[in-house]
Design a protein that fits this description.
The protein is α+β, with helices and mostly antiparallel strands. The protein has two domains: 68 residues, GMP Synthetase, Chain A, domain 3, CATH 3.30.300; 68 residues, SH3 type barrels, CATH 2.30.30.100. The model has no long low-confidence stretch (mean pLDDT 94).
Length: 155
């Protein structure tokens, strides 16, 4: 079985100083290697092909057969790397916490802290009607269960 450490060892010099970062690396049964890489603002197909070739050239199919897939993370997948938050500043996110879910705009990201902005209906004491209030809050990555980019064709 091919080890993750071996793939990481192959990837490190290829990714170094390119702006490309590893989002995930999985090795399944039958040596099925799945590599997800990304870059700010976006990674090209040519960069994915180059990374794939780097891995293929450093593994010996005679020694151990494998299947390899190198891709960028899909829009439908959760954000799994801090640099993906940095890449998505200005976009709307659906952020799931332990006790609630917020859909709002990612205003800023630095030092593992997101600044989110969203609107919430709030009941004012003595009034019948709720008012909509804009909320801006800093949130640490540690308390987020999942975050996904909200795909919008109107922006």
């Amino acid at each position: 079985m091919i080890k993750k450490e071996k793939i990481l060892e192959i990837l490190e010099p290829k990714l170094n100083n390119t702006g490309v970062f590893l989002v995930s690396l999985e090795i399944g049964s039958g040596n099925k290697i799945l590599v997800e890489v990304d870059k700010n603002p976006s990674i090209s197909i040519d960069e994915c092909v180059s990374i794939s070739r780097q891995i293929e050239q450093n593994l010996d199919r005679e020694e151990e057969d494998f299947e390899l897939r190198v891709s960028s993370p899909g829009l439908d997948k959760p954000i799994r790397h801090p640099l993906q938050f940095e890449k998505n500043v200005g976009r709307k996110l659906k952020v799931i916490f332990e006790d609630k879910t917020i859909s709002g705009k990612l205003i800023d990201f630095s030092e593992n802290t997101l600044t989110l902005q969203w609107f919430e209906k709030i009941k004012i004491e003595g009034k019948k009607k709720k008012i909509t209030e804009e909320i801006t809050k800093k949130v640490n990555l540690d308390i987020i269960k999942e975050a996904k980019v909200i795909i919008s064709f109107n922006d």
